Amino acid sequence: MSSVMRRQERNANRAARLIDIDITSTRPGTPGGRFMRQFWLAIHRSEDLPKGHARPIRIMSEDYTLYRGESGRAQVLDYRCPHRGAQLHLGWVEGDALRCLYHGWKFDCSGQCVEMPAEDPNFARKVAARSYPTQEYMGLVFAYFGEGAPPEFPPFPASREASLIHVWNAETVPCNWLQCYENSADEVHVAFVHQPGGSHAAIAELPEIEAEETDWGMLRLGKRQGGKLRLSLHYMPNVTRVVVPPLAGFDGIGGWSEIFFSFTPIDDESHLWLITSQVKVSGAEADAFRAKKAAYLEACARAPKVMDLVHDVWAGRRRLIDIEHPDLAIVQDIAVQAGQGRIADRSNERLGRSDTAIIVWRKILARELRALAEGKPGKSWRVAPADVVPTLGF
Ligand code: FES
Ligand SMILES: [Fe+2]
Question: What pTM was computed for the model?
Fold first, then answer.
């Protein structure tokens, strides 16, 4: 047996040992659920929440109400009214407050009840819905679901270069969040999954992967021929920041852009993709980009739904390599990653050296979750410094 094969064998064994604690569940009360609730999480695309609208959202197996007040402020409150449990999103927004549809109780952004039309006026001040700290950044609404004061905001830095923010369609992906997070640390998949369509041809050369833990998450290094190095950043707990090729269908406008992927658990078997591109364009070039984006959105509206295509591929009705779609890379990624199962069975995996970043991430998660489960202090995670940036590396 060669030394490489022996090392792969050791990796596989080590990985099997790592999952003696459930690193996939984020249900309330589980170690993973308690861990994830220590961070700000992206929960919604800002542009999909107009003023005066309220929505039901489900995050980490719990339901909430998200609404945007008339001032433009977004706020997360409990899902149900504390009176008799009506869904709060059925009600209507008044200023920055939300009034329950059922009997008209009105709650301000802090969740305090401020009006009960059919009750004694003194009763209202004794009743509150729970509200959750809510902020917006890079085209996304973030919320904090943990105990006590939330950590620093924004939770991660962005490029300071003049740029345009483009937030991709939020997709609901029918599998556990960690599968897709792990894929975001899997640089080798690009050369295979995204070969059809060629959108990732420029990074098809297989890299040698290294990864190291930092005080904000993990730094991933993809080494290519001639010592060229691609750096990608993994911010704790669920954000990946990478440099990617010019967007498909945008004729190279904006060149290589930065993408921030947030993988937010809806429950243990589904999650949200909230993807933001920071495209380095300004002035006339930004106008050209907006025109391309409008054409892209029109093409998406005409195209089949991503998940319909994925189901066709899973059922063998179509071949993935025959599909044409304005979001082809997303179809390809979801077909493979959600195709691993609603919660991938990691017990029989055989991990190799190209899985190094995934192994490092699992070790970190398992260590932190074990500490929580045993009542020991976990690591104090910091917001990454702005000068640590992802690089193209070739
Ligand atoms: S249930 Fe909301 S006001 Fe009665
Ligand atoms: Fe991919």
Answer: 0.94
